[in-house]
Amino acid sequence: MESQSIDAAEFRARQRESWNIGARGWREWSEYIDRGTAPVSRRLVELAGIRPGSRVLDVAAGYGEPSLTAAGVAGPEGRVVATDISPEMLAFGRERASAAGLENVEFLESDAASLDFPEHSFDAALSRFGIIFEPDGEAAAARVRRFLEPGGRMAIASWGPPDRVPFLGIPLGTVMRRLEIPAPPPGTPGPLSRPTPDALGGLLAGGGFSDVQAEEVQVTFEWSSPEEFGEFIKGTAPPITAMMASHPQEVQDEIRAAIVDTAREHAGSDGGLMLTNLVLVAAGRA
């Protein structure tokens, strides 16, 4: 599903820059993100068949999830290699692993298309909201499949469609309306690029995986106010920040205020904001 309009090298360079900048916000909000997304990490580890002693590859691991969850299951006799395009996110991941006392995790800087390991190096592979940013996800999946033992499983996750992922749909929709940005073509790399079970499962099937199955997981986030939600998005959503980056600061400020105002429409009577979001997970066998 590679988009012919995307220069892959340029796209990856922009991603590296955006996520290096975004790492600061992920440091600030990491505990909050962990609480909300822990069910996704646990389910991916289950679907990948990770057990004590497993050798695991995490593609586009960011700040170290589901790497750390997998490392806890694999135990001291297993190992996890967490890869990502952003050195700043990886640096934070190393800090988190050290703080958790996990010594069986290695962090390696690489985009998904450049990964290079001997055949049969791993028993399982994971990617939580990561490989969906790769310009040619199917080719990346095929590459990972070669690193797995025969029968090894890969489990991946994506967000669903914008109307069922309000924590992203609200700010994305607001930015696109204000800046009159048209919807990207289907398959354009990003957090919402594989919004259906067929699209996400197709990434694995296109990479040569068999017995591909997809399912849904619900993720709920809560904020004390729409304003806190606005700060969360500002700190943790580089794709949204990048859409506004070329515009004057006053335009960016206006849009951020509009995001808060739109979020206020979904707030409860106490002023708090609770948004339930659809996550798709899929797994296949090498």
Main attributes of the structure:
286 residues, alpha/beta, 9 helices
Residues in helix, %? 40-55%
Low-confidence stretches: none
Structural class, judged by helices and strands? alpha/beta
- With strands numbered from the N-terminus, the spatial order across the biggest sheet is 3-2-1-4-5-7-6
Alpha-carbon Rg, integer:
18 Å
Mean pLDDT, rounded to whole units?
94
Biggest sheet descriptor: 7 strands, mixed
Number of helices, where a helix is a run of at least 4 consecutive DSSP H or I residues: 9
Tally the beta strands: 7
Helix and strand run: HEHEHEEHEHHEHHHE
Approximate strand percentage: 15-25%
Query: How far is the N terminus from the C terminus?
Result: 20 Å
Q: Name the shape in a single word.
A: globular
Question: How does this model look, in words?
Answer:
The chain has 286 residues and is of the alpha/beta class. Helices cover 45% and strands 21% of the residues. It is built from nine helices and seven strands. It has helices at residues 8-47, 67-74, 87-99, 137-147, 166-179, 197-206, 226-236, 238-244, 249-264; strands spanning 55-58, 79-84, 105-109, 122-128, 148-159, 210-223, 273-285. The protein has a seven-stranded mixed sheet with strand order 3-2-1-4-5-7-6, sandwiched between helices. The protein is globular and about 50 Å long.
